[in-house]
Amino acid sequence: MMEMKKFKENLLLYGANINHWPEEIRQAGLEALESSSEMQALLVEHEHFEKVIKTRRYEEPSGNLAQRIISASLQQKQKAPFSFGSFISELLNEFRFPKPALSVLSIVMILVLIIGFTIGFSNPSESVLTAQEETSLQVFLYDEGDVI
Known about the structure:
Structural class: mainly alpha
Order of helices and strands: HHHHHHHEE
């Protein structure tokens, strides 16, 4: 007995005429069709769908279709090779402000931020030398002459 999901798949793959299905699944499809009214309704619906598809007329492409495709592909902007100068130029053009003073101010702020990150990562304030760690540990463990 064929399940509903498999029956739908076979309808889509092989069509509404079960006699055109492969021999190994044809008998199971016929048995499933006889036993289920839901599958019969699905078959009728699929037959109607195939009729609609067959009545759809084919439209010939226009005579200048090939020429339109070629001309459209030639009009596409060719990509220039990558250069760092053009990248910076495009980046500045993207973030251009209406007043030049604002763009200068934004560039200065970005540079200050970059310098701050560089200083922060090159000299982290939480770093402690190993000798200082040992001293701090000894001071912590030593309490008024008694070793804890």
